[in-house]
Design goal:
The complex is a heterodimer.
Chain A lengths: L13 H18 L1 H4 L37 H37 L1 H15 L3 H12 L3 H27 L3 H8 L4 H37 L11 H9 L7 H28 L1 H4 L1
Helix pairs in contact in A: 1-3, 1-10, 3-4, 3-6, 3-8, 4-6, 5-6, 6-8, 7-8, 8-9, 8-10, 9-10
Chain B lengths: L2 E12 L6 E12 L3 E5 L6 H9 L6 E10 L2 E2 L5 H7 L4 E4 L13 H13 L3 H14 L5 H6 L7 H13 L5 E5 L7 H18 L2 E5 L3 H7 L2 E6 L2 E7 H6 L4 H8 L16 H21 L1
Parallel strand pairs in B: 3-8, 3-9, 6-7, 7-8
Antiparallel strand pairs in B: 1-2, 1-4, 4-5, 9-10
The chains are: A mainly alpha, B alpha/beta.
């Protein structure tokens, strides 16, 4: 008789461990930002502007990673930037997943004209550069965290919709779905209790990949100044500011880039690892 | 005995790009309450489609163009979705072909069994669980408590088929359609499953529409048998009668093509090509006549 959960358990997979670790670290930093950050991220001190980081001569021990043009502490700004990144990653990705999944389930199971409309909508959506679409959207809705989240949901629901619909088309032809119909279960019931649970592994993988994408989109939008208020710390905004001083202080741009890269790598590793351990096809 | 299921001149066709393709060509069958009807024929004869049409599971592109399906005197072809749901699982059930895929891989056996019980009999969680335990015991599963907690992949093929049989009999339906329920199992398990089905069928008084291509199974299990080819019933009679005096050439050819322990393997004769040709020509003539008539 087969063992439960053949193959490796998710928590024994190296990618899952790395990705989960990054996510956990990000959550801790975001929650404990006031405790970790040595300074108020908005506090200006023009007398000590452009302080170098700890590895350069003349570093200020009070500003471990130096200060920016207005004398604001870079470490503190990076720490608070994690809050924005994490909020966007969790909220936007989850809502995009919810919207896309509902529409995908509906389209795949009901078929017919509803499916045709939703599928064409997805086709149209995907024929326009997603980043440009969110930039346009954020510009229309107005800057701010809410606009960023809305823009990501509005653009990325298609990723979920397309894959969920395709999965439902596969699942609905399975014998156990027919078996559920022959015991008299209704459509909604079959969809909810028979098909949806079988999509969960796929959804989990997509969700963690989407969180990485959300972080990137947030960085882009804050880089072009469409995210939260311009002096509030976001990683994209920090890159934008650092860009001006790239020849004098390269780290001002490199440090937030590093934050983004590690975070996105983490989310992607988590997604890939989950796919390896949860996908029954890859697992066998 | 009154007829529980009456199929009358059933015509079913599948919509296709080049025009509708006839699948069933005027199938007429009757199944008495509490009896077993074997439906035999080679692949593509339409026997599975008959079973699907009875349960209302025919594919979306299928159309019943003529004929009637009556269950207990009630017409099944015009049934609404809601009425059919009340019928399925309670009055008629399906034992599927492949036990490896007919159970939901992410649900415990308990949930899959109690769903049907709670839905149709309105029992509470505990009562439904008791009922499920009794059903598993009735299909001779030794540790029903443990099996209820298990997932399908933890069970062998034979165990899964037993669980599916238990689900089919859960509400004591009057009709069960069994679509080649033993083809996916190995031979020793096949015997046990057949014996189990016969036992349950006779104690519960359920009528069984048994779709198979195994004449040996028909001989053991069925009261009557219908031989199908190309969507037509060529011969339908009592099993003893058909086995003793097969009337149709095709039935005789099927017998000659069936392996038997008391005959050498090289005595097997495939169904002659000219017979198949003749039957297909008859089917075409039939379609032609129908088209002209319409």
């Amino acid at each position: 008789m087969a063992e439960r959960g053949r193959g490796t358990a998710p928590w024994r997979n190296r990618r899952v461990l790395f990705g989960g670790g990054v996510l956990l670290l990000l959550i801790i930093v975001a929650l404990a930002a006031p405790l970790i950050a040595p300074h108020d991220p908005l506090e200006q001190d023009l007398l000590s502007s452009f302080a170098p980081p700890f590895w350069r001569p003349g570093a200020d021990p009070g500003h471990l990673l130096g200060t920016d043009s207005l004398g604001r502490d870079i470490l503190s700004r990076l720490v608070y930037g994690a809050r924005v990144a994490l909020t966007v990653a969790l909220v936007a990705a989850t809502l995009a997943a919810a919207l896309g999944t509902v529409l995908g389930l509906f389209a795949g199971y009901v078929r017919g004209p509803a499916d045709a409309v939703i599928s064409r909508l997805v086709d149209v959506w995907m024929s326009f550069p997603p980043v440009l679409l969110s930039v346009v959207l954020a510009a229309v809705v107005g800057a701010g965290l809410k606009a960023v989240i809305l823009a990501i949901i509005f653009v990325d629901w298609t990723r979920f919709c397309r894959i969920v619909r395709a999965e439902v088309l596969v699942q609905r032809e399975q014998d156990y779905v027919t078996a559920a119909v022959t015991i008299g279960l209704g459509r909604a019931r079959v969809l909810r209790t028979e098909i949806l649970p079988n999509l969960l592994p796929t959804l989990l993988v997509l969700l963690s990949l989407e969180m990485g994408i959300a972080v990137i989109v947030e960085a882009i939008l804050s880089f072009v100044g469409l995210s939260v208020a311009s002096d509030a710390p976001t990683w994209g905004g920090l890159i934008q500011e650092g860009r001006l001083y790239i020849h004098q202080a390269w780290w001002m741009m490199a440090l937030p880039m590093l934050c983004i890269i590690v975070t996105v790598l983490g989310f992607n590793a988590l997604g890939d690892g989950l796919r390896e351990t949860l996908d029954p096809v890859l697992r066998r | 005995m009154s007829a529980l299921l009456e199929i009358e001149r059933l015509h079913l066709e599948l919509a296709a790009p080049g025009g509708a393709v006839p699948i069933l060509r005027g199938v007429s069958l009757t199944l008495a309450a509490g009896s077993v009807l074997g439906l035999v024929g080679e692949s593509g004869a339409g026997k599975t489609m008959v079973g699907k049409a009875v349960l209302g599971l025919q594919p979306a592109q299928a159309r019943i163009s003529e004929g009637a399906l009556r269950f207990d005197g009630r017409d099944l072809t015009g049934l609404g979705a809601e009425e059919r749901r009340r019928l399925l699982g309670r009055d008629m059930a399906l034992i599927p072909q492949d036990p490896m895929t007919a159970l939901n891989p992410v649900m415990r056996i308990e949930a899959q069994m109690t769903d049907v019980i709670r839905f149709h009999l309105g029992l509470g969680r505990e009562a439904a669980r008791e009922r499920a335990l009794a059903l598993l015991a009735a299909v001779h599963i030794r540790a029903p408590e443990r099996v209820l907690r298990q997932y399908p992949h933890e069970l062998s093929g034979g165990m899964r088929q037993r669980a599916l049989i238990a689900i089919a009999f859960a509400c004591r339906p009057r009709l069960i359609v069994a679509d080649e329920p033993t083809t996916a199992l190995d031979v020793t398990v096949q015997r046990q499953i057949l014996r189990l089905m016969k036992e349950l069928q006779s104690t519960a008084g359920t009528a069984l529409l048994f779709i198979t291509h195994d004449l040996g199974v028909v001989a053991k299990l069925c009261d009557r048998v219908a031989v199908m080819h190309a969507g037509r019933v060529l011969e339908a009679a009592d099993v003893a009668e058909v086995f003793a005096r097969p009337r149709h050439d095709y039935t005789r050819a099927l017998f000659a093509a069936t392996p038997r322990y008391d005959r050498p393997a090289d005595a097997l004769v495939p169904v002659p090509a000219d017979l198949t040709e003749r039957l297909l020509a008859e089917a075409r003539t039939y379609d032609e006549a129908r088209r002209r008539h319409a």
